[in-house]
Amino acid sequence: MSDFARLTTGSPSEVPPRIILFTTDLGCGGAQNHFARLVEGLFAERSPRWILSLRAPPAENFSLHGLVVSSLGYRSSKDYPASMMALRRMIRRTDADIVYSLSRCSNIVSLAATQSSRPRPMTVLGVNENLGAGVRTRHTPAEHFWWQAQRLSYRYADLILTNSPDSIEVLEREFSCPPSRTRLIRNPLPVAQIRSRAALLRRVGSPLNAPYLLSFGRLVEGKGLDLLLDVFARSTARSLGFRLVLLGDGPLACALRRRVNTLGMADQVVFPGWTNDPLPWLSSARAYVTPSLREGLSNAVLESMAAEVPVVSFSSSGWIDKFARAGAVAAAPLNDVKAFDAAIERILESPLHRAQIVSSALRVVADFESEHVVQEREELIRQAWNEFNERSCMGRSLNSEGSAT
Q1: What DSSP letter does each residue of 377-388 carry, written as one string?
Q2: In what order do the strands lie in the sheet with 98-101?
Q3: If you ran DSSP here, which 8-state letter would residue 157 be given?
Q4: DSSP code for 16
Q5: Closest by alpha carbon to 368, among 301, 290, 310?
């Protein structure tokens, strides 16, 4: 049904929008967990929805919460034009009202496809990265390319939802996005479920027969894991017999293992590999340590807070700063390894300080409970969709009047 038909047969709020939920890939990681929670809850049972991945899903006939996942077959940059055309065909086939993309690559493909579609669906972009950090770290040709692609295209989005306070400023100042179309959001998290299960797992016992610090996620650039190894090599935690567990996998795995051997810590740094369920490791960790230099809003941080595991982080984003002011996270100035190590040491040596951080974190993370956050996001999208329909109807009326005269 077209936008005009919807407006003439009933108010947009009475007719559910048809939505394509579009991400870059469905591999493992925090961003993919975020996407899965949205698929589970966003407009569920109220709107026709299609799940789309730019890259092929991990298995044929892959489904997510009962919905079959389609793929545009992207493999490399040469596939961008074909991906854009494939998305345009899917928009026509589904008569989609909204395309909600949730990562940088899919955002660019979405804008290119929707801007050339007639009638044009509303475009909603999810920005799950700290664009403020991008201002400081555009060192490679690829980083410059992506920055310019976003700067030139994002202003044409109808709504941008970002989980990073730093990104809001960049979107408006650097990318010329209208402030009326940018919104700060929170990540959905099953807080009560994580807290309950973590308590049960602690009673079951630790997966390691020694106390440990934990960092988990993709082993990639920007996570600061090489810096973490240098911190641990000189830390009080190491001298107290603690291990460092790097849970995950990625392109830096081999380099990090070599670095561990160079520092003489092969017996003290553990690489369990990738797991789709980090909670058994997280629940027994003495602290979650994240030296990431450019997070937007880390799901791993939120999950640690919900699991009652204290977090030590660099002040890498507005959210971390906000959590630190609330006493929910121990934060060190960016790249200040001495302050980072001191924050770890204080948590390990002061049970009272640890308990205070955990208590504050539970109060803060309660606001991220999935059901409430997804409902808020749905309302933002529905409001923007109503406004988009009104603008579209007004534009068609003006065009009709101009043609008549």
Answers
A1: HHHHHHHHHHHH
A2: 63-64, 67-71, 49-53, 19-23, 98-101, 122-127, 159-162, 182-184
A3: -
A4: P
A5: 301
Q: Which residues is 19 bridged to in the sheet?
A: 49, 98
191-367 in CATH: which number? Answer: 3.40.50.2000
Whether the predicted pLDDT of 225 surpasses 70? yes
54 CB neighbour count, 10 Å cutoff: 26
What is the per-residue pLDDT across 20-52, written as a single tens digit (0 to 9) for each?
999 998 866 667 788 888 999 999 888 999 999
3-state secondary structure of 298: coil
The sheet with strand 269-273 has its strands ordered as 269-273, 243-247, 212-216, 287-290, 311-314, 330-332
The full set of domain ranges for the chain reads: 3-187+369-404, 191-367
Query: Half-sphere exposure of 156 toward its Cβ, with a 13 Å CA cutoff?
Result: 17
Judge whether 3-187+369-404 and 191-367 match in fold: yes
Are residues 131 and 125 in contact, defined by beta-carbon separation less than 8 angstroms? Answer: no
What is the rounded CA–CA span in Å between residue 62 and residue 129? 26
Asked if 20 contacts 54 with a C-beta cutoff of 8 angstroms, the reply is no
Q: How far is CA 242 from CA 267, 336, 370, in A?
A: 11, 21, 34
- Whole-number pLDDT of residue 136: 56
Beta partners for 183?
161
Q: With both helix axes pointing from N to C terminus, report the angle between 370-404 and 30-41 in degrees, rounded to the nearest 10.
A: 70
Nearest-angstrom CA–CA distance, 249 and 27: 12
The answer to whether 336 touches 393, Cβ cutoff 8 Å, is: no
**Three-class SS string for 266-294?**
CCCEEEEECCCCCHHHHHCCCEEEECCCC
Helix axes 351-365, 299-306, angle to 10 degrees: 110
DSSP string, 218-259: ---TTS-HHHHHHHHHT-HHHHTT-EEEEE---TTHHHHHHH
Q: Which CATH code for domain 3-187+369-404?
A: 3.40.50.2000
- At residue 102's C-alpha, the angle toward residues 100 and 105, to 5°, is 110
For residue 136, give both structure tokens: 């400081």
| pLDDT for residue 291 | 87
DSSP secondary structure code for residue 184 in this structure? E
